[in-house]
Write a structure and sequence with these properties.
With about 70 residues, the protein is an alpha+beta fold. Helices cover about 50% and strands about 15% of the residues. It has a 3-stranded antiparallel β-sheet with strand order 1-3-2.
């Protein structure tokens, strides 16, 4: 399978999510623990749905009164 045929990922690690949203790894785990960033547990791994990033941004914008 070449790079143009890759299957889109539905989940990412908390470390990857932290890099995407521009926060530290520990703060990303705080967001997960507090429920502000949705996550799923598969075995021992904690993973973040890709859609949870958009949900977090939408919620932050609503909390700050932005459109």
């Amino acid at each position: 399978m070449n790079q143009s045929e890759q299957i889109p990922r539905a989940l990412m690690s908390v470390n990857e999510a932290a890099r995407v949203i521009g926060v530290s790894r520990s703060f990303a785990y705080e967001l997960v623990t507090s429920g502000h960033l949705a996550s799923v547990r598969l075995g021992r791994r904690v993973l973040v749905p890709v859609s949870a990033i958009d949900d977090l941004i939408t919620q932050c914008r609503a909390d700050n009164g932005s459109k």
